[in-house]
Amino acid sequence: MSSKRQMLGMLFFAAAFVAVLLLVKPGEASAAVYYVNNQSGSGCNNAGAGTSTAAPWCDFTPVNAKTFSAGDQVLLKSGAAWTGQTLNLQGEGTASQPILLSSYSTGNKPIIAPGTIDSIAILLNGKGGWKIANLELSNAWEGIRLQYDHVYNKDYIWIENLTIRNMTSAYNSAPTSYNHTSAGISVKTMADAVSPPYSDKVNAPGRLTALTNLTIKNVNFYNCDTATWFGAPVTGFNPFEHLWVKKVIMQDLTIDGGGMWGFNALFVDGGVFTNLVAKNIGGVSNPFGSAGFVIAYSKNVEVIGGEIVNVSRHPDQNYDGVGFDFEGVGKNISLRNMNIRNTAGAGIFHYNNSGLPDIDTVIDNNIVSHYGNNPGNSSEGIYFAGGSGIVTNNVFNNSFARSTYGGSYGEFVFAKNTANTVSPSFVPVPPSVIGAPAGTGLVTSQVPGTLRNDSNGEVGFKFTTGATEITLQGLGRRAVAGNYKTHTLKLRKDSDKSLVGACSVSTSTAVPDSQGYQYCKLAANVSLQPATSYLLTSTEDYGGDYWHSDDTTIALGTGTVNGSIYNNGGGWSSGIVGNRAYGPVTLLYTLTNIARSGTAAASGTDTANGYAASKVNDGIASTDFNGWASASPAMPQWIEIDFGSNKTFGRVELYTTSGYELRGYQIQVWNGSSWVNAFPAVTGNSSAHRTHTFAAVIGSKIRVYSTQGDAASSYARVNELEVYSY
Q1: What is the CA radius of gyration of the chain?
Q2: Is residue 132 a contact partner of residue 74, using CB atoms and an 8 Å limit?
Q3: Minimal CA–CA distance to 380: which of 351, 357, 413, 337?
Q4: Band of the pLDDT at 23, cuts 50, 70, 90?
Q5: What H or E segment, with its residue span, contains residue 622?
Q6: Which of 113, 56, 125 is CA-nearest to residue 85?
């Protein structure tokens, strides 16, 4: 080999060596895979390295002695089972390089079944950066315990595709002691008690964080006293000793046979729980009251979809047995699209634990059926013990002569809820998801100001509508990168601060529009009157999602901004006057069709074919025989709408039927003493839908004055007349 070729070979080797070194950061070993298999013929050896399927570890003794590193994998043999041991995992990974505990090979999921009193199948004590998947856990006090005892700010736990069975009092030395509940997955947190205790338990500004980014997906629980339990690693209860768990996702979870509860979530700040199913809950003696889902001491959480069915109470307790339990001390918690049926007590329970009911609750688009079949302290569709929020779009199917609402609910707003009397055998259909709102954004541009998250309460701006009525369909909040919580958006009339509309948006699930706003839909469209002042706000909490201060400048598509406003619990206060806003927030609107609220009359009507003057402003524009037709082909003929008072308008949408178009007509306005043309007469028309815009006019009535009927029969026909301000 020539010296030149030798040199090239050495350079290539050196480059390859450097490339390998670059794959491993200084001080970081490469990831390793460890195997565990106790089956006959596996060749297992606890004294070996465990890094080969030909010579795996036998049980959990070497696993528990090993401190794993980011990217490592611990794999249990499919079809194998271990009893009498806890898997006590050591080491920490990261969100991008978690340590994986899972299975290998084909067959049934590997089983961990300790089978002893107060045993835990898998323990992660003070750890973050783990992913656990593809296992079966059974016969223990707890399936997985995530424990953070004076441990703070850990990140990332992912649990997926598990089967968890028989976490019951059979393996529990103190099943009726608080924080000693048998659970499929528990999150136990503990800190020093705050002294003096913070007064705001709902926002809990002194509470530290144990874990951020907890995901639990695709887990089936069977015969567990509860699927999930968030508490403390000691008996008793002191809310000042608990820590926050933030950014929690629970998705596609099912429990069948929850002795005490279906799901329990406490001390959660920021969560989205989707498609959770709880069946056959209760039946175990429980001094704390059974429920399909109980949430307390939490905020900024959405529960979306799923089912709660068959919730009973043990005979020795004359209380609870409810479907969904807002237990109290909460803020911005939403329950949407849930199918709840067959509950001993209330379908939904809105309690006041510690004397503090939830505030800004959203109960929207749920179906609640067969509630109060064995009532104790509640039997209603929803029982309230105070609090505030909105109850919208819900259906209550009553089969036991129970009340739809009970208790104290004076601070709640109700809209578009229905109650039906049904037989006990009635099978409800799950609710359909409500579509997104439509319309034009009120805020057309903004220059965002300083970011902040240092206030508890409502922030936004005051505005005054223009000279025209508008119809409101939804509310919006501008997203900031990293936001992940829910926010209740509210619109109030400025004069008396009465609530006009409210809904809740999740910054982790909603999709921003081109200007960065995320929207929620109101239960019913709301009309905003001309030249009227309103307050538009978003609820925020200290240390929560970021929003912009009122050095933010905004512009509106209609109306005028009067300045920023806020309410941190001490009443409403003004910020900067002018085109300024906190947030910012916005709304979606359309122009109001003022014809809909008017009274129609005509020169004469062909009633024999189902026509009627009243059908010309019923909101249906496309169906033949649904509008008005003249009684005679002799012209002129007219159809008018009386608004009842003067209105300002400048656009008319005129609908007729294809083949029966109105050929010649005038649009006229009553000015108080006579009819005047809004624009020159139309002749030779052949369009079934015509849009006419003109300089704004003021009048109390409008009419279509026909001078030439349709080409087919010479009658005058109008299917629908819509009138807008512009």
Answers
A1: 33
A2: no
A3: 351
A4: very low
A5: none
A6: 113
Determine the length of the chain: 726
> What's the angle, vertex CA 421, arms to CA 416 and CA 424, rounded to 5?
130
> Is 304 within 8 Å of 331 (Cβ atoms)?
no
On the question of pLDDT at 8 being above 80, the answer is no
Residues 6+ away with beta carbon under 8 Å from 361? 326, 330, 333, 334, 335, 350, 387, 388, 389, 390, 412
pLDDT bin (cut points 50, 70, 90) of residue 9 is very low
Q: How many CB atoms lie within 10 A of CB 106?
A: 7
Q: 546 exposed, middle or buried (CB, 10 Å; 0-12, 13-18, 19+)?
A: middle
d(C-alpha 353, C-alpha 663), whole Å: 69
Retrieve residue 416's tokens: 């578009």
Candidate from 152-156, 646-650, 662-666 with smallest mean pLDDT? 646-650
* Token pair in block for residue 499: 């609530």
- Mind spelling out the 3-state secondary structure of 329-350? CCEEEEEECCEEEEECCCCEEE
CA distance 88 to 409: 47
Strands (E) in 620-677, as ranges, are 628-629, 637-655, 664-670, 675-677
The pLDDT, as a whole number, for residue 624 is 67
- Contact (Cβ atoms closer than 8 angstroms) between residue 376 and residue 321: yes
Distance CA 200, CA 207 (A): 10
Bridge partners, residue 528, by sequence? 470
* Choice among 41-45, 232-236, 264-268, 367-371 with the minimum mean pLDDT: 232-236
The residue among 118, 144, 296 whose CA lies nearest residue 215 is 144
Q: Which residues contact 105 (CB under 8 A, 6 or more apart)?
A: 53, 77, 78, 79
| Amino acid sitting at position 327 | E
